[in-house]
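Late entry, evening session. Most of the bench is empty. Finally got around to the prediction I had been postponing all week. Sequence below, unchanged from the version circulated by S.P.
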Amino acid sequence: MDFDYTSYQSMLAAQESANWAFWSMNISIATAISTAITLIIAWKALHTWRRQEELKVKVDLKRSLIDLLDSVQAMPERWSYMEVNRARSILKQHDIDTSLRNEETKIFFNKQDMLAAHKLAMNNWMLCEGLLDDPKIEALWKEFRNTFRNYAMKGGTSSEVANALIRIIDSIVIFK
């Protein structure tokens, strides 16, 4: 083998190496671009998912408040804790006529439903911490809590509690 032939073969090998390096560089650039695009799509998907979850929590809160409103409106317009206690004692007796029991004990079961709806609304309110950035809603919620506590313990007028709930429900805007 002579020197020129070896130089020529070395030049061909260097040219082939340069071609491989060029295409490897292009593939690396394409991989980097596709990785960046994948990251952008993943970030957008995660951001969309978060908004969907926030929306779901707000919808659950509003739905639970509407259910609570329905259960408050199922209560008599005026009632006292003595009526609930009387209904409880009727339920403990077994010799009361069934039709009488149904009418007089209805308030007891309605109150139990109302308290269960209130518990669900409270849980959903806790889940919405930080999502409801309107201070007006928080003020309305504090007012409602005080009104409801007195209403659930002592009785009173259901329209007061219902009006407080309606103000909160109207203030929570799901779709802006």
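Two things to note before I forget:
The helical segments are 3-74, 81-92, 98-127, 135-154, 158-171.
Residues 3-74 form the longest helix (72 residues).
Will write this up properly tomorrow.
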